[in-house]
Amino acid sequence: MERPDNLILVIFGATGDLTARKLIPALYSLKNQDLMPDRFSLIGVGRSELTTEQFREKMAEAIRTFTEEKEPDFSRIDSFLNCFYYRKINYNSARDYAELKLEIEKSCSEKGIAGNIIFYMATPPDVYVTISNSLYLAGLSRESEGYRRFIIEKPFGTDLASAVKLNRTLHELVDEKQIFRIDHYLGKETVQNLLVTRFANGIFEPLWNRNYVHRIEITSAESIGIEGRGEYYDSSGALRDMVQNHLLQMVGLTAMEPPSSLDADAIRNEVLKVFQSLQPIREEDVEKYVVRGQYTGSKIRGEYVPGYREEKNVPEDSRTETYVALKFFVNNWRWGGVPFYVRTGKRLPTRVTEVVVHFKQTPHHLFQRVIGKLAGNQLIIRIQPNEGILLKFDMKEPGAGFKVKNVNMDFHYRDMADVRVPSAYERLLYDVMTGDSTLFSRDDEVETAWKFVEPIQKAWENNPDIKVYGYPAGTWGPEKSHDLIEGEGLTWRYPCKNMADEELYCEL
Predict the structure, then answer these.
(1) Which one of 63, 145, 209, 266 is CB 3.0 to 4.6 Å from 115, fit for a cystine?
(2) 508 in Cβ contact with 294 (< 8 Å)
(3) Residue 164 falls within a domain, yes or no?
(4) DSSP-derived 3-state class of residue 388
(5) Taking the mean position of all CA atoms in its chain, how far away is CA 288?
């Protein structure tokens, strides 16, 4: 891997949690791998009263606390932080942006950096446009000398209308090629390996279609609750927070056609085609194809876990979903008739994200009379944790007769002792610095994904009769979600058992 060109990184929201937990440790890890530019400056921008020295001390502590390296080397922290600077800013002050411009020009001149600047908005989304407009008015967004790149974090809007408005506003200020919409899920090694697994292996690609695949299942489960973010989460919910972005992007990579090349737009064009092929879920059909739930209080290993409505800053009558499961179809030649199942939730038994390809049964069950119904073959692509790939298939047990057992053939990245799996933000920050937009959402992808989600949002808003199902914290979601899976005796894949001491399901 080559070193990026010399650049300046400006982080808005530099005193926030994202910067401390993810961005700075990721940059330091890149530094230790000699994957940072030879000449580099970081200007932290925030609303807090801090000196540059205080900012450096905070970032040093962040590196020591939040590094994801197994055997971290902290010997280069001081030299790394010497290129860090801090400026307090009022996001609405033209004067402050003029002073920021002078600071950037000073750094470019002193370090011999030819005007390459990345602006990272690690801020609440409601100030993206304010910051972008102020940078434009200050003359900092135009690519007269070097490049200008803008990184924004999800959510990219709260619905279709707001996403379109955000895109149109940004396009008045900068070109689409300058915008990098970051989705940390796409930075995970196993997500990227989806492409290699499919298109580099002759044993999988011929089977990756409606003739051999019974269903596709994608799960993103979290064992934690809302972690004190009640006010934010209650205005968002699982559909906005997870499905519209992370999970639909994984659907796109799982279902896409082979791209013409590994060029960023070639790959994103194929993902877009998948989104355009999603069969719309009509408002009147939402109850049939979508289940929403909300975790309730329960005991896990004898200790009480509060329900969502008991969390701080959550209304007592909240109908915001902490769990959502969907069934839908991709209406194209490859996937016609194959159901896709997607689910995500808080307070589930474990933290896991995975894609499961369920293959069809053989046309004639030769061993059915002996052992009953055989388990189907499954290809499980584990995104997190324990990144890897698992293939489940049937084998004969040793001994007389034909007793068949389902066995695993698995690969874990951790078994590659000589290879370090980079964190998602390491990969994505490096890609921005090198100008590779493959793993970043394009404007038309974002809008098309919102178009698919919009009828579900409207149905929930307009029809109070659509139920919100309760599920005890520590279980795999509402019992109602089982009804989505087609086929006798079929259910979701459960990577582990329920953790709750009692499993009381209800309707809220």
Answers:
(1) 145
(2) yes
(3) no
(4) strand
(5) 26
pLDDT surpassing 80 at residue 129: yes
**Residue 330 and residue 279 in contact, taking contact as beta carbons nearer than 8 Å:** yes
Domain at 395, CATH number:
3.30.360.10
DSSP code of residue 80:
H
Instruction: Give every CB contact of residue 277 below 8 A, 6+ residues apart in sequence.
Output: 330, 331, 332, 335
> pLDDT band at residue 375, thresholds of 50, 70 and 90?
low
Q: pLDDT digit string (tens) for 158-189?
A: 899 999 999 999 999 999 999 999 888 777 77
Whether 320 contacts 294, CB under 8 Å: yes
Closest CA to 210 of 327, 340, 325, 326: 340
Coil, helix or strand for 251? helix
Q: Which domain holds residue 247?
A: 186-507
Task: Judge whether 281 and 451 are in contact, CB under 8 Å.
Answer: no
Domain assignment of residue 498, yes or no? yes
Distance of CA 387 to the CA centre of its chain: 15
Residues 6+ apart with CB under 8 A from 142: 136, 148
Say how far apart CA 291 and CA 323 lie, in whole Å.
8
Containing 276, the helix (H) or strand (E) segment is: helix 264-277
pLDDT per position as a tens digit, 418-474: 667 778 899 899 999 999 988 889 999 999 999 999 999 999 999 999 999 999 999
What is the bridge-based pairing of β-strands 404-412 and 148-153? unpaired
Report how far Cα 508 is from the mean position of its chain's Cα atoms.
29
* pLDDT given at position 435: 92
Which residue in the block uniquely carries the two structure tokens 């940390």?
Answer: 184
In a domain, residue 1? The reply is no
**Whether residue 238 sits in one domain with residue 107:** no
Q: Give yes or no: residues 244 and 336 share one domain.
A: yes
Whether residues 142 and 253 share a domain: the answer is no
Instruction: Kindly list the catalytic residues.
Output: 246
HEC states along 315-377?
CCCCCCCCEEEEEEEECCCCCCCCEEEEEEECCCCCCEEEEEEEECCCCCCCCHHHHCCCCCC
pLDDT, tens digit (0-9, with 9 covering 90-100), for 309-366:
999 999 999 999 999 999 999 999 999 999 999 999 999 999 999 999 999 887 766 6
Burial of 182 (0-12, 13-18, 19+ CB in 10 A): buried
Give me the number of domains the chain comprises: 2
Same domain, yes or no: 369 and 269 = yes
Tokens of 223: 């064992």
- Cα radius of gyration rounded to whole Å, the chain: 24
